[in-house]
Amino acid sequence: MAGRFRPTTPTTRTTIRGGDTPVPAPADYPLDLGLTLGPLRRGPADPTFRVTPDGSVWRASRTPDGPGTIRVAVRDGAAEAEAWGAGATWLLENAPALLGADDDPAAFVPRHKLVLASHRRRPGLRLTRTGLVLESLIPTILEQKVTATEAYGAWRQLVRKYGEPAPGPAPEGMYVMPDARTWTQIPSWEWHGANVDGKRSATIVRAARVAARLEEAVLMDPPAARGRLELIPGIGPWTSAETIQRSNGAPDEVTTGDLHLPGIVGWALAGDRTADDEAMLDLLAPYEGQRHRAARLILLSGRVPPRRAPRMTPGNITRI
């Protein structure tokens, strides 16, 4: 199944179309595939995400209709999409939102020189909206209070073992993540073998048991959606924000409770590397409504405080 989408290079301005039918979209806009879809990638070896040498982006997802694979590529100033599997139609219908059609960068007004410069250098940055909660929630839970390397390794191991091969001609080694029921049935020793402690695995199981209720969050406004997720013990503001940013394309849901972000924002905007969440939110207050976008642009600017302490040391619960 194929569809043709118009926009997508940072210099071409056209109109998005999905499948055979025009999809309502905002005014023509530039689009950078890497910047827009990059947040969905969980490490360089993510089995659900692949970028091939021709620049195509492949994603394997578990949609409401079942597993599916989508490929998006830029050809002659347009983004062409193809999809396979039971979820193919759903993926194509939601491809415009995935590529940022629901986003409104025009609502963003830079208030700092650094943010303005970062914004100007990245005209193709759009905020993606996947329309899928669990596929962002589970890897985010795996990232709680561990290094990225540990979390990415756990995600990779569990998806490959309990997921299923991606439909269609997907690149070798791509998998669709397990369904909700399968997540609830993973044995304790398999979590242990993937270096996932009991607290994180229990949170994932609790979330998977009410997956249908959590998926309803994509129809809610972002604050209500976060509230729905945070009803699950083990899901707090950090996890809910990181999830809803991706599933709902939420431009204002800034991440709090992060080990590094407050210091990075504080350093970039005020020269204060000791900023905490409260100070960060004060600094981002001029961007109310677009605070996540502002934080993203600050991160993309590359201006980070000089490191004083050693990096977080990876743990290994399999030795316990």
Describe this structure as you would to a colleague:
Helices cover 39% and strands 12% of the residues. The protein folds into three domains: 2-109, no CATH class; 134-247, Hypothetical protein, domain 2 (Endonuclease III, domain 1); 261-301, no CATH class. Residues 2-27 have low confidence and may be disordered. A five-stranded antiparallel β-sheet has the order 1-7-6-5-4. The chain is α+β, with helices and mostly antiparallel strands. The N and C termini lie far apart (49 Å).
Quick summary of this structure?
This protein has helices at 33-37, 88-93, 95-98, 113-121, 134-142, 148-162, 180-184, 188-193, 198-209, 211-215, 222-229, 237-247, 261-270, 277-284, 291-301; strands spanning 2-5, 17-18, 21-22, 49-51, 57-63, 66-75, 78-84, 164-165, 175-176. By secondary structure, the chain is α+β, with helices and mostly antiparallel strands.
